[in-house]
Structures are given as C-alpha cells and as structure tokens.
Amino acid sequence: MTEQKLMRAAYYEKQGAAKEVIHYQEMSIPEPGAGEVRVKIYASGVNPSDTKSRSGWGGIEQKFERIIPHQDGAGVIESVGENVDKSRIGERVWIYEAQLGRAFGTGAEYIVIESEKAIKLPDNTSFVEGACLGVPAMTAHRAVFADGDVKGQTILVTGGAGAVGNYAIQWAKWGGAIAIATVSSPEKAKIAEAAGADGIINYKNEDVVKRIQEITGRKRGINRIVDVDFTQNLSVADAVLRTNGVVAMYSANPGDAPALPMLSLMLRNITIRSILVYTMPQSAKEAAIKDITAALEAGALRHNIAQTFPLTQLAAAHEAQDSGKMIGKAIVEIS
Prior knowledge:
Helices cover 31% and strands 27% of the residues. The protein has helices at residues 18-21, 48-55, 127-130, 133-145, 163-174, 186-195, 208-216, 230-240, 262-267, 282-297, 314-323; strands at residues 6-11, 23-28, 36-46, 72-80, 92-95, 110-114, 118-120, 154-158, 178-183, 199-202, 222-227, 241-249, 271-274, 305-310, 329-333. It folds into two domains: 6-132 and 303-333, Alpha-Beta Complex (Quinone Oxidoreductase, Chain A, domain 1), CATH 3.90.180; 136-274, Rossmann fold (3-Layer(aba) Sandwich), CATH 3.40.50. By secondary structure, it is α/β, with parallel strands linked by helices.
C-alpha cells in the first residue's frame, strides 16, 4: 500500500477573526490535472482581499466548506498534468489568482493551479519578492496603463507607500511619466521616494491641491490619478485633473456613494475608471505579466516587504494586514 503524502496547510472553515478561525493541519498533497501544475510553495503573500474574505467584510460570503487562503505566492513546479510541457518541472514561478474560484490557495506547502497562472520567476527575484506580485503589481499596472501610454504625463498616486501605490509609482516611472505621491508620514515619504516619486506631499500637514499646483506649475497639472480612496479624494481630483484626465480607483468601502461634480467632470471629459484585478480583462492581465517579467529581469521593481511570518503564524500575518499599522507587505514563508 502506497504511503499517503501529506503537506502542512493553514485553513479556515468559517469566517471570523483570524486567530479564532484559522487552524493548521496536515492534508493530502494534491495531484495536478490536465493543464495544471503542482507548485511547492516557498512564500505566500497576504492581501486585503484575503483578510476581507476570511472576515466576511462587507457581506462577503464563504463559498467553500474549507478554505486555504491567499491568491499570491511563489515556489517551484514539482510536477505537471497532461498537456503541460514536462520541461516546466523545476521552474521557479510566481503565482496569481491561486484561490480565485477555488477552495485552496497558497497558504500551504503545495498548490495545484492552472499552468498559465504560474509565471516564470527570474533568478534575480527571491520567492518572498515573487509572492508580492500578483494582486498589487498587477492592479497598479492596470491603474497606470489602462488608458494608454503615459510617457511625458504627470501621474498622482494617492497612498504612495501602500502596496498598490508603491508599485504604481514605479510603473509610472517605467512608462516615462512624472510621479507625484501623497503620504501620511515621513516614514511613508521615504518609501515613496525610494520607489522613484518625483514629488511627495504629506496630506496630513500640507495643502495637497496647492502643492500639486506648485510642483506641476499649473492650476490643473495632473493627467491621471491612481486612487486608493476616491470618495475622500474626489475634491482633489476635480481640482487638479487636466482636460481628458483619468481617475483609476482600486479600493472602496461598503456604503461609499460620493456626490459627483458632474458638470465640472463632463466639461473636461474626465474618465472615472474602477479597477478590480480579479475581474479586469485577460488582455490586461497578460500585459501586466509581460511588463512585470521585463521589469524584474531588468532589476527595475522594488518590493516593499514589511514583515515575514512562518506558516504557523499565518493568522498573525492576517492580523498585521488588518491592523492598518503595517507599512508594506506581509509575507508567509512556508518551505
């Protein structure tokens, strides 16, 4: 009789507070089906969407009886299913949308996933860094480039020290734009500066509109805004966007219902674009993956990692993410 191979995994069976519902257990190692690969996970990224799903935030319903959390991760392909080239065995990869429409994500020693969602990880990028990429880097790429080339434009990134905002600054610079970031502390200003921001505004103690006007030399000097809080920042957007400008918002709260200055926005042909990485077009995901690969190979992406946790402290990683005090990514190191 063949001995069953087991893996360590974190999981939850009901929604609630992290330390109350997340448990740890050995489970059977999954086998890849047709078109799938099995990846040995070395690092798993924690995103707000992971903790919101676990807590039931905003009325999110649990869709599976048992869930291994996390969409993002990085590791090594150990086996492949039918219709997948065996040459992929041994390939270092980063993973995105691991738990989308599935019960089991990257919060375990192994995962089985569609081959096309396991992307080759350049040798100059660690597994911990690779686990940062899926949600934030792809969201930021879409927010910056959804409306075309940005070369020579001026982009405002609100929350420039956040996971998405930090990558957005870097994508803006990658695309040849001028990047201005808002932050809420000197510590966060240093993070935005390290990402390449050309101008940094502390919105806690500075007049954001006035400072943007000073930096750009124009009353309305912003072409595009990558926005973490559209409702809160709407008046700033209206004041600083040029004609044909764009606001790309990627975060919202239940009940957000801002009153839009419709005539002002219409007269300048302003576009309001909402972004969710999980439902954005496949072509946008492919464009992001292409640029992520190129930027990684060029050593052009910085990864703001706040803290790493062992698998047995995955619940603590969720608490750190939910605390609002952590600046940067929480990563769970697994193997």
